[in-house]
């Protein structure tokens, strides 16, 4: 077993912990650090739909995942881990851009850039320190929210099919032509 010193968690120096999977947080993949920080934010703020890139980087820093904060952590949260952006070296599908500089965890059913097909969505269990492993189970439960349920709750998508009875017995082009009669 490898003994690891976590740098700082919430400003306190921690005692050594034993891990079997990885040597230290600085050896953890940056993409995994981004995923952990974002998952922690979601778990701590269940009513928040997304988070700013800076919030994710700050949460990783407070957790001791990135002390000192590596520049690549910001770039991963901004670009490399974002499923619905064109890949720029990193092809991960761990986050989704909900608005400029706003992110949330990727869920199955989310749209993504085709060039990211088949790429990593969550960290491998063996790549995580054991005390973060429960996040994988939390994510599985959090991601259960089905695509159908999300569509039902989306006010615009809920309109799909409404009004179809208006032209149910008439071709759409004929219906539009009839509506336009008398327009000048």
Give the tags.
single chain; 184 residues; alpha+beta; two-stranded antiparallel ribbon; 5 strands; 33% helix; disordered N terminus
The global form is elongated
Low-confidence stretches: 1-23
Count the DSSP helices. Answer: 6
What Rg is obtained from the alpha carbons, in whole angstroms? 22 Å
Strand order of the largest sheet: 3-5-4
- Write the H/E string, N to C: EEHEHHEEHHH
Integer count of domains: 2
Question: How many angstroms does the end-to-end distance come to?
Answer: 82 Å
Percentage of β-strand residues: 5-15%
Show the helix and strand layout.
Blueprint (H helix, E strand, L loop, with lengths): L1 E3 L12 E3 L10 H15 L6 E2 H11 L7 H10 L14 E5 L2 E4 L28 H9 L4 H7 L18 H9 L4
Antiparallel strand pairs: 1-2, 3-5, 4-5
Helix pairs in contact: 1-2, 1-3, 2-3
